[in-house]
Amino acid sequence: VTGMNPLSPYLNLDPRYLVQDTDEFILPTGANKTRGRFELAFFTIGGCCMTGAAFGALNGLRLGLKETQNMAWSKPRNVQILNMVTRQGALWANTLGSLALLYSAFGVIIEKTRGAEDDLNTIAAGTLTGMLYKSTGRV
Known about the structure:
about 0% strand, flat, about 140 residues, single chain, protein transmembrane transporter activity, Tim23-like, about 65% helix, mitochondrion, mainly alpha, Mitochondrial import inner membrane translocase subunit TIM23, membrane
């Protein structure tokens, strides 16, 4: 075998075959290299729920400490603060999760309807979400 540069006496292989000039992941036939709106929807909804829960828990802690500031540190005060943290956490997680669900659903529907994936879909989904949320009487 002339011109070959074996890696070792045990592996008689031309190192040029080991060079990878393509992507290192395998895509199913017909799949895009970027994630579409539908795939990102799950990340968006979950992320918003977790962010809402964290924000609500901090807000609940703040409100709980403020409301019980005249009480001595005791079990009833701790329970009251914990209740406020839990209630606010759930409230904010629910609110932000619902908004993310609406936004994602509108985004997917608009993208499928228009057959295009651009910033106009994002603007339309955000506008429709805001309008629907505002129309329910929420501030």
